[in-house]
Amino acid sequence: MSSLHSIRPWRQIDRRKSRQIMVGNVPVGGDAPITVQTMTNTDSSDVAATVAQVQACAEAGADIVRVSTPDESSTKALREVVKESPVPIVADIHFHYKRAIEAAEAGAACLRINPGNIGDATRVREVIKAAKDHGCSIRIGVNAGSLEKHLLDKYAEPCPEAMIESGMDHIRILQDNDFHEFKISCKASDVFLAAAAYQGLAEITDAPIHLGITEAGGLTSGTIKSAIGLGNLLWSGIGDTIRVSLSADPVEEVKVGYEILKSLGLRHRGVNIISCPSCARQGFDVIKTVEALEKRLEHIKTPMSLSIIGCVVNGPGEALMTDVGFTGGGAGSGMVYLAGKQSHKLSNDQMVEHIVEQVEKRASLIEAEMAAEAAE
Ligand code: SF4
């Protein structure tokens, strides 16, 4: 995509320069790809269920998965989950410093913990020592819904300034203990509040930023809120890793996260389908076809594009810019385009099978080209 960006500068996003940390073997920040995270909702002490969900999320594209560890049985189970997981695991700690130490010992790649909330300086030192000893990074997670009381007293209500101050207080504690492998989030369910807090924080720290609109809602409303909040920040270059929070299956969070990054050209995975909205001109049932294709093409991980366009008004134009294209409009048939060039006629009733075949072929070609480029 870099070539597209240089040809079309209006597509360019200049990322804020953050320093890079490691979450297990996954780099976060700097020039590392923006990672997609989610969080399990199984009982964390149930190893089999948690591992199955982590694997499903990883299969859907999650780079990092967070598991909540509220008690000893869940930090015990974490050891097994970490062993079986194909991606680094972040342990979500709330207040108990002992859980943080146990999670670090169990192999968590990162601890989500606010050092200001876990007690006196000795406890903080113990947690930081455990993180250092076990190669864990830390995510400071400021949340508008759980700001410290003294900040609420000072600012009267959750506001960007209070969230930024909270974040900087926690950062200072880590820095005073010579710990620098941290990233930070400052989430709110209100997109304006979250965006303003993130913008403020991005100006005063070089820590990698974990983006999220918290408690965003169900699949549709949460997706829209996240796309607006995260989209706006990512577009302005802010954000090194993201989590979309939905009251839905974590796999959906991963899919939405990827779609947001794909829309902005920040990450590419799988087939990006360009298709018509509902419209009376369509020469075939676009909605049903796209639904079927989305399901049939879930296994494709190669970044590529597919246009499924109902008629010749926009079909040929879109097909010029996609890897595979189909434009309807003939009597029961349409035109297939490959790599932007008109290729052959296809009858509507064979469309799904044939397009799946063409996409699979094209994906193998792109993979071979990418492998050859990497070998050069
Ligand atoms: S390309 Fe044709 S079918 Fe698609 S939205 Fe436009 S007019 Fe309608």
Can you walk me through this structure?
The chain is α/β, with parallel strands linked by helices and 376 residues long. It has 13 helices and 15 strands. The strands form three sheets. An eight-stranded parallel sheet has the order 8-7-6-5-4-3-10-9. The radius of gyration is 23 Å and the shape is elongated. The chain binds iron/sulfur cluster. Iron/sulfur cluster (SF4) binds next to loops.
Short descriptors:
376 residues, 13 helices, elongated, 8-stranded parallel beta sheet, alpha/beta, binds iron/sulfur cluster, 5-stranded mixed beta sheet
Structural topology:
Elements: H1 2-7, E1 21-23, E2 26-28, E3 35-39, H2 47-59, E4 64-68, H3 72-84, E5 89-92, H4 97-105, E6 110-112, H5 121-133, E7 137-143, H6 149-155, H7 160-176, E8 182-187, H8 191-204, E9 210-211, H9 219-235, E10 241-243, H10 250-263, E11 271-275, H11 286-296, E12 304-309, H12 315-320, E13 324-327, E14 333-338, E15 341-347, H13 351-375
Parallel strand pairs: 3-4, 3-10, 4-5, 5-6, 6-7, 7-8, 9-10, 11-12, 12-13
Antiparallel strand pairs: 1-2, 13-14, 14-15
Helix pairs in contact: 2-3, 3-4, 4-5, 6-7, 7-8, 8-9, 9-10, 11-13
Bound molecules: iron/sulfur cluster.
Residues 276-277, 279, 281-282, 309-311, 313-315 line the site of iron/sulfur cluster.
